[in-house]
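Good morning,

Both structures are done.
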Amino acid sequence: MTISIYAMIHRSMCFFHKAKIEILFLFFSKPIKRISLVKDSIPIK
């Protein structure tokens, strides 16, 4: 019984860990693109 519960927890943790990485990647890749676009649009004196 306990082994199956640990297995379920382990699977859910792995799934959420992968999903978290994908969400963070998407979340951070968009602002970085926006910042780079803003930097490109601002003329350097």
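Second structure follows.
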Amino acid sequence: TELLIDVGLLATIFRYMR
């Protein structure tokens, strides 16, 4: 739930940054 959303958002941002 919250953790999944947090991880998903972080992964998306990281992928965009990289």
